[in-house]
Design brief:
With about 200 residues, this protein is an all-alpha fold. It is built from ten helices and no strands.
Length: about 200
């Protein structure tokens, strides 16, 4: 649908996505209406459709933007060095990237069930690409003889779940700095892969 003449899509579009993110994380996708999102932004409900076709598109765009940003940032942080160095870089990257993104992470994991089959396929492919990054590091460590991992796929999923757990408990005003947290998580990861 065409944007209303005189509207500011470069301002309103991001405000709509921010409101949807906040509301989906707080109440769950199924419990949030387009009317609530519009109210949060200060729009009439009908005006929302000038910026997005529907609520499904909003959910998908939030999840895809998160995954695209994650994959792009990861690619520049974990590409060089031996397997141990790459694993350490992956852990540090994952922790730093996910701190302060609790809403995005909650939606990325808990709202998959609400995606249409086509959108689910797209997001799952992006998630697999991220898992494959860690999986390749683990496989390299096995080849180099520095990791002791009985099943790289299971270990990949377990490590990502452990690392992503940071969003449930870390608070910037707590007693641990981001560097402290990365060090603790690196030590747990190192032991998990037998380094």
């Amino acid at each position: 649908m065409a944007r209303t003449q005189g509207s500011h899509s470069e301002i309103t579009g991001p405000r709509i996505r921010a409101a949807a993110l906040k509301l989906f994380a707080a109440h769950g996708y199924a419990a949030v209406s387009m009317r609530q999102i519009a109210r949060e932004v200060g729009l009439q409900a009908g005006a929302l459709y000038n910026y997005t076709p529907d609520k499904q598109d909003l959910l998908f765009s939030l999840m895809k933007a998160h995954m695209d940003e994650l994959l792009s940032a990861c690619a520049s942080h974990v590409t060089s060095g031996d397997a141990t160095t790459r694993l350490r870089n992956f852990v540090d990257f994952h922790i730093q990237f996910h701190m302060g993104r609790a809403d995005e992470i909650f939606i990325a994991y808990m709202e998959l069930r609400n995606l249409s089959p086509e959108n689910f396929e797209t997001i799952e492919a992006l998630r697999r690409a991220y898992e494959d990054t860690l999986g390749a590091i683990l496989e390299a460590g096995l080849t180099e003889g520095v990791f002791d991992v009985p099943d790289p796929k299971v270990t990949t999923r377990a490590l990502i779940a452990m690392l992503t757990g940071i969003t449930t408990w870390y608070r910037p005003d707590g007693y641990l700095s981001p560097a402290d947290v990365s060090e603790i998580y690196w030590n747990m990861t190192r032991k998990a892969v037998g380094v």
